[in-house]
Write a structure and sequence with these properties.
Blueprint (H helix, E strand, L loop, with lengths): L5 E12 L2 E12 L3 E6 L5 H9 L6 E6 L2 E5 L2 E2 L7 E4 L11 H5 L9 H11 L15 H13 L5 E5 L7 H17 L3 E6 L2 H7 L2 E6 L2 E6 L1 H6 L4 H6 L4 E8 L2 E4 L2 E4 L5 E7 L4 E4 L5 E10 L4 E7 L2 E7 L9 E6 L5 E3 L3 H4 L2
Parallel strand pairs: 3-9, 3-10, 7-8, 8-9
Antiparallel strand pairs: 1-2, 1-4, 4-5, 5-6, 10-11, 12-13, 12-15, 13-14, 15-21, 16-20, 17-18, 17-20, 18-19
Helix pairs in contact: 4-5
The structure holds adenosine-5'-diphosphate and magnesium ion.
The site of magnesium ion (MG) has 2 residues, from α1.
Length: 348
C-alpha cells in the first residue's frame, strides 16, 4: 500500500488482546496533507488501530510506515516520542495545573525557540489572549484548540485524533468541528480522525475508512461510500437505511422497491435505499402503502409506511400525512443500492 504521497502506510496489521482480536489485518493509507476519517461502531477497533500508529500499542502482524520509515512491525516498535506523531485524545488530556502556554509548550522543553513556537501556535489557533488561562477556565472549543496546539508543537508529520468531539454536544460540537477542520487545513497537517459518528466523519474527511469487527471493510471518499457501499455493514455505518430482500434472476434484481440490474448469480440479495431517497404521492401511484407512524425530527419528519410485509422509513420535509393514510411511495431508482448477502449481514 506504499504510495509516493503516503505519509502513513498501514499494511496488514493485526493486534490481539489475549484471544480478542481488536484489529484484524488492517490496511490504511493517509495521503500527505489529507484528513482521513476512521469510522466504526464502538468496539470495532478504531482506538487500537490509532494507538498502534501512535506507537502506544505493538502489532502482532504487518507493518506501519510514517513518512517512508517503518516504525512498527512484530517485535519491533519505535517509541511514540521518536515518531513524528501528535495525538489529541477524547478528553483533551490537558494538564490542569499548567496555563495554556505551558500546556502548548510542554513537549518543547529545551527547545531553543520554545517561546516563539508557542506564540505562533497560540496566534494561529486564536488562543493568544488566553495564554495565561488555566484549562478549567476555557470553553470546550478552546480546550480542544489547546490540545491541538500542543499536538502541533513538535511539528508532527501526522496528527491523530481519537473521538475529538465526544465530550461536546449540539451547537458547540458543530462549531468546534469547523474550527478544527479549518486549523488542520490552514496548517496543511495530515490527520487521522477516529469517530463513531457518520456526520462528523463525512463532514471532516477527504477519505474515509470504514471499520467493522477489527477489519477495514471499505475505503473511499465520503460521497462514494455513501452512494456505493459494498456491504450492508458499510451502508449502515454511513446512515439510516431501508433494506429489503430481492430475488436475483438473470442479472436483474426484483423487490418491493423495484427492479435493478445486478450482476450476480441467481438467488437472493439485499436491495437498499436511504430514507431521504423515498417520496410520498397519492395512493394511485408508486408503491401502495399505509402510514404507520410519523415522528417529528426537527428539519424533517420520519414517516414509516407499511407495504406488504415491509415497513419503509422516509425522511420528509414539509407536511406529513396522518397515521393510517393510504399513500404511494415513490423510489428514486437512481439511488437504489444492491448489496450482497454475505456473512457480515448475519450479525446485523
Ligand atoms: P473502538 O475504539 O472502536 O471503540 P477499541 O479499539 O477500543 O474499539 O477496542 C476494540 C476491541 O478490543 C474491544 O473489544 C475492546 O474491548 C478490546 N480492547 C481494547 N483495548 C483493550 C485492552 N487494553 N485490553 C483488552 N481488550 C481491549
Ligand atoms: Mg475508541
Amino acid at each position: 500500500m506504499a504510495t509516493p504521497d503516503a505519509i502513513v502506510s498501514v499494511t496488514g496489521i493485526s493486534r490481539a488482546y489475549g484471544r480478542k482480536i481488536a484489529v484484524d489485518h488492517a490496511d490504511l493509507t493517509l495521503s500527505r496533507g489529507c484528513i482521513l476519517g476512521l469510522l466504526g461502531a464502538s468496539g470495532s477497533g478504531k482506538s487500537t488501530l490509532l494507538r498502534t500508529i501512535a506507537g502506544l500499542e505493538s502489532v502482532d502482524a504487518g507493518t506501519i510506515a510514517i513518512d517512508g520509515q517503518i516504525v512498527s512491525k512484530p517485535g519491533r516498535m519505535t517509541p511514540p516520542e521518536a515518531r513524528r506523531v501528535g495525538m489529541v485524545f477524547q478528553d483533551f488530556a490537558l494538564f490542569p495545573h499548567l496555563t495554556v502556554a505551558q500546556n502548548v509548550g510542554f513537549g518543547l522543553k529545551g527547545h531553543p525557540d520554545r517561546d516563539v513556537v508557542v506564540a505562533n501556535l497560540l496566534e494561529r489557533l486564536r488562543l493568544a489572549d488566553r495564554h495565561k488561562a488555566f484549562p478549567h477556565a476555557l470553553s470546550g472549543g478552546e480546550q480542544q484548540r489547546v490540545a491541538l496546539a500542543r499536538a502541533l508543537a513538535r511539528d508532527p508529520a501526522v496528527i491523530l485524533l481519537d473521538e475529538p468531539f465526544s465530550s461536546l454536544d449540539g451547537f458547540l460540537r458543530a462549531e468546534v468541528r469547523e474550527d478544527l477542520v479549518q486549523a488542520l487545513r490552514d496548517s496543511r497537517t495530515s490527520a487521522i480522525v477516529v469517530t463513531h459518528d457518520a456526520e462528523d466523519a463525512m463532514m471532516m474527511a477527504d477519505d474515509l475508512a470504514l471499520m467493522d469487527a477489527g477489519r477495514i471493510i471499505q475505503t473511499g471518499t465520503p460521497q462514494d461510500l455513501y452512494a456505493h457501499p459494498t456491504s450492508v455493514a458499510a451502508a449502515r455505518l454511513l446512515g439510516p437505511l431501508n433494506l429489503v430482500v430481492a430475488r436475483v434472476s438473470e442479472g436483474v434484481a426484483t423487490s418491493v422497491l423495484g427492479r435493478k440490474a445486478f450482476s450476480a448469480p441467481d438467488g437472493s440479495a439485499w436491495m437498499a435505499i436511504r430514507p431521504t431517497d423515498l417520496k410520498l404521492t397519492g395512493p394511485q401511484d408508486g408503491i401502495r402503502a399505509r402510514v404507520v407512524s410519523v415522528s417529528f425530527a426537527g428539519g424533517f419528519n420520519v414517516v414509516r409506511a407499511r407495504t406488504g410485509s415491509e415497513t419503509l422509513s422516509l425522511h420528509l420535509t414539509g407536511q406529513a400525512p396522518p397515521v393510517g393514510a393510504a399513500v404511494g411511495v415513490v423510489v428514486d431508482a437512481e439511488r437504489l443500492m444492491m448489496l450482497p448477502v454475505s456473512c457480515d449481514n448475519v450479525r446485523q
